[in-house]
Amino acid sequence: MARMNPPTIPRSSIAFILAPRLRGGLLAIVLALTTSATTFADKIPRPAGGPSLRIATWNLEWFIAPENFLALARTCVPRDGSPGSRERYIPCDVAMEKERSALDFRVLERYVDQLDADIVALQEVDGADAARRVFRHHDFCFSQREGVQNTGFAIRKGVPHRCGPDLLGVSLDDRVRRGALLIVYPGEKREFRLLSLHLKSGCPRRTLDDPRRDCQTLARQVPELERWIDEQAAAGRRFGLLGDFNHDLLAGEGPARNDQGQVRNLWAEINDGDPQGLELINVAAGQPFVNCAPDQNYRSYIDHTVLDARLAEWRVAGSFVRLTYDARDALQRKLPDHCPVGVDLRIPR
Fold it and tell me: Rounded CA gap, 328 and 99, in Å?
């Protein structure tokens, strides 16, 4: 999208620029001035020129229905403790810090309305019971892992779809999270597939041949992910990968593998042109990075919406979607530490 010169900064954006430099009462004054006259219920505009389908990804951070959260909090696992054979548990620091109020859920529902997405790939969500607290007009597909952090999709009612089987390989025998598959417009010529992912954390910018355990775990997930990508490409399907990759795909440089044959560069490994003609497009490529809230100081995207070249043919030019949080909400409400990234598609009839 062409950059306008000089840019006009909306009042509601000023806090995002100034807040990191401000402290105490001055910050409160700036927030009051910049948020009091803004309507936060406005939806992200749809592209002109006819109907479109908006897809996005959003990690909702330990998103659990209140009654289930309270039950899990009573038996939380201390920092150095072990859950034993239990699959459903939360750490005690999560029990102390992440319980959300009814107002927190209402504010998040408002952001769902603002995002106005038809399909949202979700991560860290305890299934449909939790998701429907804020996605009021959607159906759901979720992975079947017993733990509370699942991947899945919220699909606006009326969008034809079918829930696919879990991608078990990336879970490394359920030691980490499974992938969730969604088939959109099943059985039609315009059918495409989406995979919701939440890969291993702890290796956001290092190469995957780094000896740290988190990087090694992420490296073991990559061949399983590449296998799925290759299967879709070989079958001639349109497809997309959406989710929390916990890795900056846009910063990777150099070859896919090192001299010993170990996976080094995640993006180069999965976007290797094999099978012939395979090409992946990250919709955030060329876009400036914007933090979700003023108090964050991250440098790059780890949540990604990636399309194969055939699905990218339907991408609406200039329709990159990034929804950030109002500064006051970020201070007062328990919002996720991630926010949505997405794109609009123009689906043929």
Answer: 19
- Number of independent structural domains in the chain: 2
Question: What does pLDDT average to in each consecutive run of 10 residues of the chain (349 residues)?
Answer: 37 33 41 38 88 97 97 95 93 97 97 98 98 97 96 98 98 96 98 98 96 98 98 97 97 89 96 94 97 95 98 97 97 97 96
Residue 2 lies inside a defined structural domain of this protein? no
| 0.85 surpassed by pTM | yes
Co-location of 160 and 11 in the same domain: no
Q: Containing domain of residue 26, as a range?
A: 7-38
Nearest-angstrom CA–CA distance, 220 and 170: 8
Give the domain CATH number at 94: 3.60.10.10
